[in-house]
Specification:
With 318 residues, the protein is of the alpha/beta class. It is 30% helix and 26% strand. The mean pLDDT is 98. It binds NADP nicotinamide-adenine-dinucleotide phosphate. InterPro entries: ADH-like_C (IPR013149), ADH-like_N (IPR013154), ER (IPR020843), GroES-like_sf (IPR011032), NAD(P)-bd_dom_sf (IPR036291), QOR-like (IPR047618), Quin_OxRdtase/zeta-crystal_CS (IPR002364).
Length: 318
């Protein structure tokens, strides 16, 4: 098959289209012919060597498509099923392997490429709004990078739960997208904490996937006993934090959550995925695909994501 192979860590140019042997399913595994693969910041961190990843490797973890083979012991997934997973071993290829108990069925009302576009970020937005902090009607949440893949989904889910959203974005085009997704107020990053406090007196929750450049302002935007969900670091990692700052800020909570701990059981994975696909099928959740790239252009997709040029979700199409 054709796949992107990352031969070493480095810039986007280490992502090269290569002919490799078709993957075979081991016991308990399935092979999926991908309709599309999702591009995620995690793939960028792994390419850079910031997150551990041995090379050579096919990057990517997210995709959806039709099952073409199943390994020994697989009983509840069959050849021909349409499934999605955020735990593929190498999604940047025509075929990918996943453990059968880590794939989810894609219902008829959801196109496979849309399932690939929503799964990883959708599961993440789901746990952040339903579990890390359960958004209640009337809660105002601050959502950074509100026009990004995560930001658009977080915004819609907070609105579905009856909350209000203040979003931050860098451009007018991104502001429009955030407002179309339901954001009640949209700010630029400059002085956002003062603005949030003057408008609300402090919010109960901040969803921050930007990290280094927003962290201080995020803490300063919280009301006493508020929670900062620091779920990513698009601008770079946050330096070490003195816990005393949480005391001084008003007995604040700080968490650094990761998807794997919120889909630890099959029941939890299916609960979140069923909600997501149900909302898509009913039209309650829309997925904005901001860019579709041929597989060979994986490096360009990474470049665009890192340079803040993108909105919504980026897909690679084999
Ligand atoms: N913990 C988890 O379980 C989990 C799961 C999925 C994703 N994530 C994290 O969620 C974050 C967002 O991921 P995404 O794929 O949805 O990306 P994205 O939000 O579509 O793209 C990142 C956005 O961050 C903003 N940004 C601000 N400063 C930036 C900088 N210096 N460099 C790059 N971007 C900057 C940009 O929006 P503006 O131009 O509007 O500022 C940019 O478009 C990432 O940190 C990712 O690692 C975490």
């Amino acid at each position: 098959m054709r796949a992107i192979v990352m031969t070493e860590h480095g810039g986007p140019d280490v992502l090269r289209l290569t002919e490799v042997p078709d993957p075979q399913p081991g016991p308990g595994e399935v092979v999926i012919e991908l309709a599309a693969a999702g591009v995620n910041f995690k793939d960028v961190y792994e390419r850079q060597g910031v997150y551990p990843k041995e090379t050579p490797a096919v990057p990517g973890a997210e995709g959806a498509g039709r099952v073409t083979a199943v390994g020994d012991g697989v009983t509840d997934v069959r050849v021909g099923d349409v499934v999605a997973s955020a735990e593929l071993r190498g999604a940047y290829g025509e075929l990918a392997v996943a453990p059968a108990d880590r794939v989810v069925p894609v219902p008829d009302g959801v196109a496979p490429d849309l399932a690939a576009a929503v799964l990883l970020q959708g599961l993440t937005a789901h746990y952040l709004t339903h579990s890390t902090y359960e958004v209640k009607p009337g809660d105002t949440a601050l959502v950074h990078a509100a026009a990004g893949g995560m930001g658009l989904l977080l915004t819609q889910m907070i609105k579905l739960r009856g909350g209000r959203v203040i979003g931050t974005v860098s451009t007018d085009e991104k502001e429009k997208l955030a407002r179309d997704a339901g954001a009640d107020e949209v700010l630029r990053y400059d002085g956002f904490a003062e603005e949030v406090r003057s408008r609300t007196g402090g919010v109960p929750v901040v969803y921050d996937g930007v990290g280094k450049t927003t962290f201080d302002g995020s803490l300063a935007s919280l009301r006493p006993r508020g929670l900062l969900a620091l779920y990513g670091a698009a601008s770079g990692p946050v330096p070490p934090v003195d816990p005393q700052r949480l005391n001084a800020g008003g007995s604040l909570f700080l968490t650094r959550p990761t998807l794997v701990h919120y889909v630890a059981t099959r029941e939890e994975l299916l609960w979140r995925a069923d909600d997501l696909f149900g909302w898509i099928a009913s039209g309650e959740l829309s997925v904005h695909v901001g860019g579709r790239y041929p597989l060979a252009d994986a490096g360009r997709a990474h470049e665009d994501l890192e340079a803040r040029r993108t909105t919504g979700k980026l897909l690679l199409v084999p």
